[in-house]
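Predict the 3D structure for this chain.
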Amino acid sequence: MKLPVLNKLNSLQIFQVFRFGAPFIISVILVRLLTQQNIGIYESLTLIGSSFTFFWVSGVINTFIPYYISVKAEERPALIFNVYIFLISLSILCFIVLVGLKPVLFNNSASGQVQGNLYYYFLLYNLFNAPAFLMEYLLMLKNRTKSIVFYGATISIFQILALIIPLVLGYDLSTAILIMAMSAFLKFAILSIYVLNAGKPALSKSVLKAFGIKALPAILTLIVGGSMQYVDSYIALKFVDKTKFAIYQYGAKEMPLVMLMANALSNVFSGEIAGANLNNNIHGSLQKLKASSKRLMHSLFPITILLILCSRFLFVHVYSGGFVGSVSIFNVFMLLTISRLIFPQTIIMALMKNKTLLKFNSIEWVVNFILDFVFFYYFGLIGIAYATVFSYFLEKVIEVIYLSRLGYKPADYIPLKAWGFYAAMTISAVIFMGI
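Done. Predicted structure below.
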């Protein structure tokens, strides 16, 4: 059997599989090494780090890809270096903010001084890890497909070993996080070496200003829309103890493989559609997006449905009986696959209409926030999952309607028959398992 030739899309998707695999393997091992309370502490740290970095990291990268395609070749080295400096500056600012917010975000004296050190060690990890996300996209833009796969495998293995080996050897969670911060520094060092070779090491106010004007709406869009999953978690953390919060977090992960591979497809095609738009051939790229999303549906929907049907068995035997309460939350979050695998937002990003995306995400945020409290009151923690699924689907519907008004019909970029069939099967599986 001949293996498929690596290209920008499948190499980045393989990378995302590695990225998904590392935290999944860690989560499975942690239930055997830590108490539920300490798992809750680790998940709280992960929540803090992600919620304060995802919007500016993703906003910069989502803007960088189509922007890089649109500028002249001789301008690209300067752009690479200045975006690198931009990310470092934001990471340092984030570090300072999180140090100041420690009494608010991590004010639990149950673990004493050890827990306090753990927080600062995690901030070091966050400081170096956040800018390093640029690396795989630089490799993608340079069409270094084999390097993407090798880099993804290597950093994922290092992440797992850095956290797990100290715990297996009997060290506490604080030491394990410190070792993980060291591994993040290695990732950052690799990025820095690459940028110094591929970029033009000179600060440019004009480059930073032009890029920043484009990136700001994308960052604001993610603050408004993408932040909702973190707001959901903070609401859960507010109303339940650390043990129940760990149960919620383990269930509220949807299927990371779907999210990561869908994001990879979106990032690749935002650049391709942007380039096609410059050449007045956008409809050809939309057909490619449709074909690629259909292939992704054939792969990911069956996995999603199988996970729903096996969810109770998996949570009991992969994690432990203590996490059986996560099953129903997990199954509801699996419904997000239905929305994840259609890509109207990719087209809107490629057209550089980031302000429009901001409006749509604002609607999603308001609807989700209101429904979080209403559904939590009536249904408990699973109500937060209901609110997330409903509001995210609503946003996709609004984006599809908007593109229709611009002349891009759903059938131009969505394989409607395949999507409708799989959506019905996924909903049926969740109903069958009982919600």
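Residues 109-114 have pLDDT under 50 and may be disordered.
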